[in-house]
Amino acid sequence: MLNIQANKQVVWLIVIITVIILSLSSLCYNLGHSVSTQLSLLLVVCSLLFSVYVNNYANSFTKNELIFFLFLLGVGLVFFQNKSIQNIYLVGLMFCVFLFLKRIGIKNHIPISIGLVLYAIFEGLYGIVTFHTNLTGAIGHFDNAAGFAVVQVAIIPFSIHLLTVQKKVMKFMGIIGLLIAVVAIYLSGSRSGIFSASTLVVLYLIYGCRDKLLRFSSFKKLAVGITCLIGLLTFIFILYQIKKDSANGRLLIWKCSINMVLEKPLLGYGTSGFKTRYMFYQAAYLKDKPESPYANLADDVTHPFNEYLDIIVKYGIIGFVAFLFLLALLMKSVRVGFKQKKYAFFSTLGVLIFGFFSYPFQYTTLIIIMTINLWICLSLYNPEPRIFLSRLVAKPILSIGLAFAGLFLLYNTIGLMKNDREWGKIREGSMKFSEVDDVISKYENLLKRGFEKESFLFNYGARLNQSGDYRKSIQIFEKCTQHVDNSQIQTYMADNYLNLGNYVVAEEYAQNARYMRPSTFLPLYHLVIIYNETARYEEAQTLALHIIDKPMKIHNANSHLIKYKMKQYTETGVLEL
Asked: What pTM value is reported for the model?
């Protein structure tokens, strides 16, 4: 029986995990999926919570906890090189959540399971209820089915944990959590979610039957292994057939990503390397293989749909080895008191499996769940001797550090929220045919305040292009390419240089856009104009005929208009701009 003080901590922890995460994810959904706003809000809440507990903060750490803090520091330094405030906030968020759990210091992790399962139930129900309003499947408060599905996968082991508790209420909650998770993952349509959840359950069953399996003869063990392997491959094949085109698109991304790795295998391309360089490798691949079945599937890509490949592309083999080293440390820590830690371990394992086919670590809510898992694996029931810090030194440093951190976070949070809100108003105003000069002046004011969100820079550059300020548009798009580069940016750059009469550079950008996304029509249209303006009439006519015969991946007014203009051009020899 827990005493009154312990009960207060239990209730407090459940409230923190369920209410705050759920309410903030809902609020950030209404704010337009702003990552910076979401992280900022979470950090401010964490800072306020710490301000309450700072005077009683425990001043000792285990060796594994110090390794974890050093790891966060290293990650922070990497992100600082990219000058991305959002990524810096992410590191701070993990640190704050970890320290908060350490301060709670609860030894019975049933409250954690209750909090996480309650959150999964609320999120799952919301996704199921709103399923029919989303054409892409159930997504809940997320902007993508992947984020919705991976959260359900990560919390499945905690639902199983509640099934082992003697209290009927806990068992009932565990059953509801599992049922909602199954329905939610199925309705999400996420093949990564279906595969990782199924694999996780199978691994959990194998663990439960480990004593019986160990008594099997070598032949029976081999037969079981082969059966599992065949079943796994069959399951993968079935999932592949469900959305074959989508799966083939990911195969293209993996092939091009491997080509990137082969060119810079050791150190990689840096934090923004994939977003800024990948599309050029895709263009090179499709240029060499114009008849490739992947050509019509190619699209603008910002992630390789594989977290491990993403690490290798960004940080090279050296970075990936460091990641494996951290996993090894985690496994070593889990071995101590595994029965108490197995739910966090299997939760982490489910996310790691999901990471082979998607991008789970792009979601803030999952980062919080993974931090909770890390805390359980590194701290809970850990018999390691504690490394004591002087109270005289530790308490002032922690108090002053948290005070400054809180002020810094609060200041930046207000600025980020203000800029995000203003950016939303500008974007809304742009769609309502506001005065061009007025809208552009608002863009400029926001840029002067240091707001350099990818979507903002892209929209600003596009708006300048539409208003005829081609030189300024080029400057903004060049700034945007420091964060991301794709066929749309290359197309706008081609149009800018075309209107400035620089046909050589315009052709280079148009060719890049053409091979980055072979299914698009606008880059081809620009090339016809360039050929016609530079008296390369035969090339222009040949390309015009190609556009007329080219099938449309997605039917839209612009593509039909371009086809019409090309038909007029081949018949009259006059190109209507």
From this structure: 0.79
